[in-house]
TrEMBL record, chains A, B, C, D:
SUPFAM superfamilies the record matches: Homeodomain-like, Tetracyclin repressor-like, C-terminal domain
One function term, GO molecular function aspect: DNA-binding transcription factor activity
PROSITE patterns, alphabetized: HTH_TETR_1, HTH_TETR_2
InterPro entries: DNA-bd_HTH_TetR-type_CS, Homeodomain-like_sf, HTH-type_TetR-like_transc_reg, HTH_TetR, Tet_transcr_reg_TetR-rel_C_sf, TetR_C_Proteobacteria
Residue ranges for the DNA-binding region feature of this UniProt entry: 41-60
Top-level taxon: Bacteria
Name the record gives this protein: TetR/AcrR family transcriptional regulator
UniProt keyword annotations, A-Z: DNA-binding, Transcription, Transcription regulation
Nucleus found in the keyword field: no
Location of the HTH tetR-type domain: 18-78
Length: 220, 220, 220, 220
DNA sequence: CATGAATGAGGATTCATTCAT
DNA sequence: CATGAATGAATCCTCATTCAT
């Protein structure tokens, strides 16, 4: 669409990745995550970013575009915060560390804001929901899935459907923690509480997927 | 039109549960769940309900009140609270039935809309989030907790923390189903897919909490 | 216009002076005087009068009519509160008593409300302003004028223009009292303060209009 | 249109005294004084001012603020505060000139509208009434009081309470003029009528407060 | 490019008035 | 006659967007 304005290499400035642009997105992120898409006003964003309202429209076509880009970058930033599965440790320790890191990322104000904001807009703007899922959730989950597959190959775990197993573990870690938090019943859970829940999740997970005398997950 | 609904007491007004009030809530539900709290306008709601804008304010103090009532009625209507644990069956069957019902309520467009909408507004209006959590989530989960406690007393299950166990089971049932759905990656999961995931969840749950030769949840 | 609906003497009820009508006007007075014409709502008036909103329109064509009638009756009521000049006393005492009564009627919340309310609407509804002036102000002033004329005839006072003199005395009595009060700078002035100001006014008035060695009002 | 007003500093914005701001106040004055605070709508004001509704809110926080500023500028503009007491003349001439100027400012349509409008709103919004009294009435009266005090020091007048005396004089000048006018009984009084009333007021005032053989204000 | 003043459509809410019961 | 539910026009105010400088 906007492609190939070709002959003007000079002053392309706002096309991709100028400092101003990053500055705007940074301000927008703060405001969008705090107030949601509808609650955020372009004026507030301009103030937060330290630019004029007009400048917003130099870099972004409209509020929607700015929101999309903001969420994208937030996604990337969150995706970055990925757990390092490569460090060799026993499975139980790895699961516990991953689970705790995962919950800590999920149940803090910033993570919650992003999820809330995207989830809210997903009905009206499905592509945004999809992009966020792919970049953040599928991404971080995917790396966990790979880890599980590696363990299966190594014979450390016995798993039929690693995607399902990965989902089960992360969900187990959320038990009693995520919903009360996201619905504003409590502040972020304490590290101790997280450790307890993750321990229990790990036990259940290993009870189900660790090769033992009898594999109770495949009954009969 | 609405004349002579026979047994209706005269002039019960807009106090609690008139036909008009239900009509308004019905219209509001459609609009709120489609567009979210901010996206929905009172004008749109009035049109959807087939009443004038002014009438909205005869029955509800403001947009907030209408939203709260709508969301609560939606939850009740959805049967999230309605699963019948009292019918005597073996634990495994009950868990599977409950899990399937739970996921079906959660992962259909109506359920997703309600959750999305409330979650979205919870940041700016925590009371709404809290109220929803208490009345809908805690309530439905509470009945499951009671069921588990009964089983523990009966010796059918061995559970240390029934709240945690209840959260674990419902979360397990969501694995691979809820997030892709809520972020608009897929349509509602098929009954077969739900059954598979719930089966796996039930197996893990029972492996952890069913009294057996060795109780694997209490390791070492 | 509405005259001669002739043949229906029965149930004419609201035509002139039923109890309901008085009840409505009473409620309306309270609300109009407290909130002004625009600030008063028909709903509030209905509540204050203890009738339904619909009933208001049985007795009065619209808000304007109700307001007019309310002000009329208030005028009458205030006009009633007329000072009794007939009791024979010396002029000085009479002036002081009248002055004090006048200021007390003017500088209390009810009097101020009426004046404010009528004054405010006089621009948009001049007839109301005129009617109020005639019934309340001219009325009470007129009786004072007559008193002065009597004194002139009796030789007690020497006044060229009794209308002017009457206005001068009542205005003198207001000095430093009325404006701060009507602009909400102070509560009603104390009887002592009123007495002081009225005393001074009386002195100035008599100095100007009492026959003495030289009549200073007619100089040169 | 408004371009190049030459010496205007760039970007002075809407902070204090821009042309747009004056334009808005001008339109607001017309509408407020004609219709009163409640009767005036922001839409009407925008139209009268030749700007958009939104622009109103760029320069003023809300209807209240716009009203306050309008009323204050109106008072100032009207020259109520502007009478020059410093020009040396004899007391009698000064009083007559001041009295006439005062009544002319008070009893013309603009002055009446301002007073009516503020008085009307003073009941519901006392701060507005108070602010108007302080800035306009007390201010203009205060300069008269100072003048009187100067005369007392000079021995030209003998006055115990100069505040009271100032109020008395201005009130005397209003006799038979202000009330009929403000209640829409008559148009603005003619200069001749004003002169007559002010002459009489001046005579009464000087009879009471000019040092003479006998000071008639301190009777018997 | 950057600005911020200006816009006008749209939102929530109120209220005088009507009308079926 | 009395009611009060229903109406819809009108109000104040917000905000995404544009444009002259």
């Amino acid at each position: 669409m906007v492609a190939h304005q070709a002959a003007t290499p000079l002053h392309q400035g706002h096309d991709e990745d100028s400092a101003k642009r990053r500055q705007i997105v940074k301000g927008a992120r703060a405001v969008f995550l705090e107030l949601g898409f509808d609650g955020a006003s372009m004026g507030e964003i301009a103030r937060a970013a330290g630019v004029s309202k007009g400048t917003l429209y130099v870099y972004f076509a409209d509020k929607n575009s700015l929101f999309c880009e903001t969420i994208e970058q937030e996604s990337v930033a969150q995706g970055m915060l990925a757990f390092d599965f490569t460090v060799a440790r026993d499975v139980e320790t790895t699961l516990k560390a991953f689970g705790a890191a995962y919950i800590q990322a999920l149940c803090n104000p910033r993570g919650a804001s992003a999820i809330r904001t995207v989830m809210a807009i997903a009905e009206r703007m499905p592509e945004i929901g999809q992009r966020y899922y792919e970049r953040v959730i599928a991404n971080s989950l995917g790396r966990f899935v790979s880890y599980l597959e590696l363990q299966v190959q190594a014979g450390t775990l016995v798993i039929d459907d690693c995607n399902l197993a990965a989902g089960q573990f992360t969900k187990l870690c959320q038990a009693t923690l995520f919903l009360p938090f996201i619905f504003q019943m409590t502040d972020s859970p304490s590290p101790e509480r997280i450790a307890d829940v993750v321990d229990s999740a790990t036990r259940m997970f290993l009870a189900a997927y660790r090769p033992s005398a009898t594999t109770p997950v495949m009954p009969d």
